[in-house]
Design brief:
By secondary structure, the protein is mainly alpha-helical. The chain contains two helices and two strands. It has a two-stranded antiparallel sheet with strand order 1-2.
């Protein structure tokens, strides 16, 4: 039963990590969608700069828009992957929880059976 509980705890930790990754991806998606929205407001003659370290570097507007669109698509793909992972971990966690409950029930039945076979009164809740 200890092994099942340990595995359950590992599954819960993996689930938490996946949920945190999903939240971070949501944040990145919102940020990039906001950038894309701002790009939509630009005129063709507006300058676009990219922050590289401490320096602003001039960037082609079309290239910048394309990069943001590609980043949005990549993030959406990652969100789908993480959601699938979360679903899988949820299913595994539920199965492990059922397994643990079954092991606990079996252990309680064995303890009650051995107590009653020794002539001790069985305690019921």
């Amino acid at each position: 039963m200890e092994a099942a509980v340990t595995e359950y705890q590992k599954l819960q930790a993996s689930f938490q990590t996946a949920v945190e990754a999903r939240q971070q991806l949501d944040s990145q998606l919102r940020e990039n969608e906001q950038v894309a929205k701002e790009f939509g407001k630009l005129k063709d003659d507006n300058q676009v700069y990219k922050l590289i370290g401490p320096v602003l570097v001039k960037q082609d507007q079309v290239e910048a828009k394309t990069n943001v669109e590609k980043r949005i698509e990549f993030i959406k793909g990652e969100i789908e992957r993480v959601e699938t992972q979360i679903k899988d971990l949820t299913e595994k966690t539920e199965k492990k929880k059922v397994e643990i409950v079954a092991l606990q029930t079996k252990a309680q039945q064995q303890a009650a059976g051995s107590a009653s076979s020794q002539g001790a009164p069985a305690i019921s809740a």
